[in-house]
Amino acid sequence: MVFTAAQLTAFFMTADYLGLSARTAAALAAEGITEPADLAEFDKEGLDAIFRNLRKPPRALQGVAGRGAAGGGRGLVDVEPFIVPAKSQMRIYAYALAVKYYVATARDLDPNNMSWVVVQHFHEEWKAIVEKKKMDVPDAPKLTKSLAVYKWLESVRNHLNQVIGVRYAPLSYVIHETATVSPVPPPLQPDEPFSEINGSVEGEMIARLSHTHPLFKSDNGQVFRVIEAALRGTSISPLIAQFRKTRNGRGAYLALVSQHAGRDVWDKLQREAEHKLQNVKWNGQTAITLQQHMSMHRREWITLQDCSEYIPVEVPNGRQRVTWLMNSITSIDPGVLAAIAKKN
User: Fold this and answer.
1) How far apart are CA 159 and CA 133, in angstroms?
2) Which of 38, 141, 242, 305 is most buried per CB count within 10 Å?
3) Sequence-distant (≥ 6) Cβ neighbours of residue 175 within 8 angstroms
């Protein structure tokens, strides 16, 4: 949906949008803002310059009476200021940010997603993102000998979700599984500037920011620095050496995923988890305690949950989990048997 002539008039002059007078709207058009999309060209400094021009417009030529036809002339006179109410000015700033956001996430502008209700919700989230960017960046998660690489990669994704890059988006957009954004965006939630599937302004940017933008290179380089610092001194650090010259964080991350979190890795983890859940027994005659045995069951069930995010896995429900656990306990200790009988 695009703006019709009537909808453009409503955008500039009704209380549901900017609420400007016809005279001020015309002056704004003279400054280069004739439709919502034009706001994408202005940052705060540019809009401030426009508001200064409207508050103090240049003097205009006007005919001057006197001295007859031979002595008539023209002179400069003051022009009445163009009024931009404080509410309208605040909204223009917010609308300019929203337009840039919609353009960045490949969405067309229309009267629905540009209604003030929607843009107000966007602006509240945007202010939180700006504050988040000002915060100290947490240290990147280090890869340790006790941490599986696929688990560390999950920590890296979580870390990048918390770091705001130069495009005011979480750096995890750099490692999003698809680099090419679909030209058909998912529908927005009612009265929200984001889709249900993406869930927030941040989620929308993670899923839909282009990797061809001039500032992507800067964010991509920051992702590489995070990965390089986390792997420094580890045995898998050489795997990202080929990406060091170009500071290609996305390339480094995908190489690590391919090597340590690809389909074959998840298949192996699934097989091992299911084997332990169904075949490892506890008879009470080893150094392993019952508590440790139960913790193993819980750990392997969580592993199956992790696997299910990447490959088809039938994760056991609560009843199946209990059945497998009870079947794995072969102790003949009377106390254990009594506890199992009570459980059943």
Assistant:
1) 13
2) 141
3) 157, 160, 223, 249, 250, 253, 254
Q: Which tokens go with 47? A: 């809009």
Q: Tokens for 250?
A: 């996305």
For the entire predicted model, the pTM comes to 0.78
Per-residue model confidence as pLDDT tens digits over 3-59: 999 999 999 999 999 999 999 999 999 999 999 999 999 999 999 999 999 999 988
Write the pLDDT tens digit of every residue in 116-165.
999 999 999 999 999 999 998 888 889 988 888 888 998 999 999 999 99
